[in-house]
């Protein structure tokens, strides 16, 4: 959905020009965040290139162990991780990186930088090797540790509302970068032949309601009663359609544009959900709130969850306001009934 652009920039503006314009709106800004966003965009272009020729690398790789850069053949998610880290280290604006691919915080050595980045360099592992849409997710914080020292886990455990920017890159039928610095959400579509991102969706607003639900229904029998009931109502009474790619960024992006809800409830294998709070759920929750949608774990807004560890997981429901409100009120009602039943049985 496209609405009028608060910055009065025409669609077709390059990402660079947009970032510069945004920076001009803050006279005391130092340009570090702007440069960091440019570094992320650059890394995504490199990853986009790797993804586009992934099939080809496989063919050439079958005859030897090295790729065109003379590096050992690696899986695309590992390549993406390396590319991102390299771009952020060389860019110089980030003191520490938290990546889904690394257990520990990565120290960039840029101890005088003010920002840290939490990221999933390439999400959608089951889709990576089969030419289905995948994505990069990122979240940016201003560090709380002292300038001149390495990054600490506290820099990353500030809570979702402390994000200064967040976004994702979807490598799909076209490549698109969607991000927010807390003043609305804008999207930039990549023009391959020019090597540039161009503003394509301004001040994005998520529809308040929607007809799409996205959940892995293979787990249906493992879901709690109110979740099952909610899904059955969507199917039978609300006339909703199921759409599930199994790539969070792709499912999220479609629902952001069209309206709908994405659910990852507890399952037997993942009793606290599967998705990671810091670099999957916080950034998407930040974006969805900016676009007028909602993100909840069923009990509280995702952005209000107090984080306790850098790789923690969470249950997540991301979607149009009306759908998430309905789900959370169903869950509340169910919990209240259980409490009452317990109280009367005592
Ligand atoms: P990953 O980080 O290993 O790629 O897993 C995250 C992915 C999401 O992109 C997707 O929404 C979800 O896992 C799908 O999980 P499932 O296969 O259990 O439905
Ligand atoms: Mg992931």
Structure characteristics:
36% helix, 2 domains, 8-stranded mixed beta sheet, 346 residues, binds magnesium ion, binds 2,5-anhydro-1,6-di-O-phosphono-D-mannitol, D-Maltodextrin-Binding Protein, domain 2, alpha+beta, globular, Fructose-1,6-Bisphosphatase, Chain A, domain 1, 15 strands, disordered N terminus
CATH superfamily of the largest domain: Fructose-1,6-Bisphosphatase, subunit A, domain 1
| CATH topology term of the largest domain | Fructose-1,6-Bisphosphatase, Chain A, domain 1
Q: Radius of gyration, Cα only, in angstroms? A: 21 Å
Mean pLDDT: 91
CATH architecture tag of the largest domain: 2-Layer Sandwich
Low-pLDDT parts are: 1-6
Please report the total strand number as a whole number: 15
Question: Number of helical runs?
Answer: 10
Give the termini separation: 53 Å
Query: If strands are numbered along the chain, what order do they take across the biggest sheet?
Result: 2-1-3-4-5-6-7-8
Structural class: alpha+beta
State the domain count: 2
CATH secondary-structure class of the largest domain: Alpha Beta
Outline type = globular
Distinct small molecules: 2,5-anhydro-1,6-di-O-phosphono-D-mannitol, magnesium ion
The ordered string of helix (H) and strand (E) elements is HHHHEEEHEHEEEEEHEHEEHEEEH
Largest sheet: 8 strands, mixed
Helix content: 25-40%
Q: Note the beta-strand portion.
A: 15-25%
């Amino acid at each position: 959905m496209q609405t009028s652009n608060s910055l009065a920039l025409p669609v077709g503006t390059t990402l660079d020009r947009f970032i510069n314009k945004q920076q001009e709106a803050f006279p005391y800004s130092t340009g570090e965040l702007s440069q960091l966003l440019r570094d992320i965009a650059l890394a995504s272009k490199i990853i986009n290139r790797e993804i586009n020729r992934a099939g080809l690398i496989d063919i050439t790789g079958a005859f030897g162990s090295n790729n065109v850069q003379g590096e050992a053949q690696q899986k695309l998610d590992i390549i993406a991780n390396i590319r991102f880290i390299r771009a952020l280290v060389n860019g110089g604006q980030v003191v520490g990186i938290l990546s889904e691919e690394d257990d520990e915080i990565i120290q960039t050595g840029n101890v005088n930088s003010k920002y840290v980045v939490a990221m999933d360099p390439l999400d959608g592992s089951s889709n990576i090797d089969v030419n289905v849409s995948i994505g990069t997710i990122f979240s940016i914080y201003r560090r709380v540790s002292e300038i001149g020292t390495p990054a600490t886990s506290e820099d990353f455990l500030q809570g979702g509302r402390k994000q200064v920017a967040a976004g994702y890159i979807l490598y799909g039928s076209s490549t698109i970068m969607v991000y927010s610095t807390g003043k609305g959400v804008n999207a930039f579509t990549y023009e391959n032949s020019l090597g540039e991102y161009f503003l394509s969706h301004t001040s994005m607003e998520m529809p308040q309601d929607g007809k799409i639900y996205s959940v892995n229904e293979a787990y249906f029998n493992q879901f709690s009663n109110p979740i099952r009931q909610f899904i059955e109502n969507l199917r039978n009474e609300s006339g909703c359609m199921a759409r599930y790619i199994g790539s969070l960024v792709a499912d999220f992006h479609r629902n952001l544009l069209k309206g709908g809800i994405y659910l990852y409830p507890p399952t037997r294998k993942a009793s606290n959900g599967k998705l990671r709070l810091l670099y999957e759920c916080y950034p998407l929750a930040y974006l969805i709130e900016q676009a007028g949608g909602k993100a909840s774990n069923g009990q509280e807004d995702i952005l209000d969850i107090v984080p306790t560890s850098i790789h923690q997981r969470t249950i997540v429901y991301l979607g149009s306001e009306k759908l998430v409100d309905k789900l959370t009120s169903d869950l509340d009602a169910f919990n209240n009934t259980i409490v009452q039943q317990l109280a009367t049985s005592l």
